[in-house]
Design brief:
By secondary structure, this protein is α+β, with helices and mostly antiparallel strands. It has a five-stranded mixed beta sheet. A three-stranded antiparallel beta sheet has the order 5-6-7, covered by helices on one side. A two-stranded antiparallel ribbon has the order 3-4. A hairpin with a 3-residue loop joins strand 3 and strand 4. The N terminus is likely disordered.
Length: about 160
């Protein structure tokens, strides 16, 4: 073979190998970490001490949440290392419901829990005698509202509960 043919083959092989190595990690990453923060449609219910304060469907995904008391923090399921990737959460769903339906809520941020405590919804505050219990499909969440993963069709409820 001619020297120019060998050089051309070497250049083509090197280019092909370089392209394969630079695109392989991207393709592998796309398959190993699926996109889990796809929007889900859930029903959010807020039950206060004197009755129903809100009930409606909302499309949500995990996102940063800002409250007057707690500031801005992530609320996307990665809180407390609960999930390896972002997911829709109950507190993010409450935040979306409040924004879309023009009502207020507030919560305190607890860095030690990496989560919010919902303190007030529609001007109803539990104070020292009650709290806002979070349940999904009728079962209280075993973790905070920024750590629990929601699925399409879930029933999310925030219920004013006395101690």
């Amino acid at each position: 073979m001619h020297r120019s043919t060998l050089l051309r083959r070497a250049a083509v092989t090197t280019t092909a190998l370089g392209l394969a190595l630079t695109t392989a990690p991207t393709a592998a990453q796309a398959h190993s970490a699926p996109y889990t923060n796809a929007p889900v449609r859930v029903t959010v219910t807020v039950q206060g001490p004197d009755g129903l304060l809100f009930k409606g469907k909302v499309t949500t995904r995990g996102h940063d949440v800002t409250t007057a008391t707690g500031g801005t923090h992530k609320c996307d399921g990665t809180n407390g290392n609960a999930h390896p990737t972002k997911v829709p959460t109950p507190t993010a769903a409450l935040d979306d419901a409040a924004k879309r339906n023009y009502f207020a809520w507030d919560g305190t941020w607890y860095a030690s829990f990496d989560d919010f405590s919902v303190d007030t919804i529609k001007n109803v505050n539990g104070g020292g005698s009650a709290y806002w219990n979070i349940a999904v499909n009728g079962t209280p969440t075993p973790v905070g509202g920024c750590q629990f993963k929601l699925s399409h069709g879930d029933q999310v409820s925030f219920t004013w509960t006395t101690f």
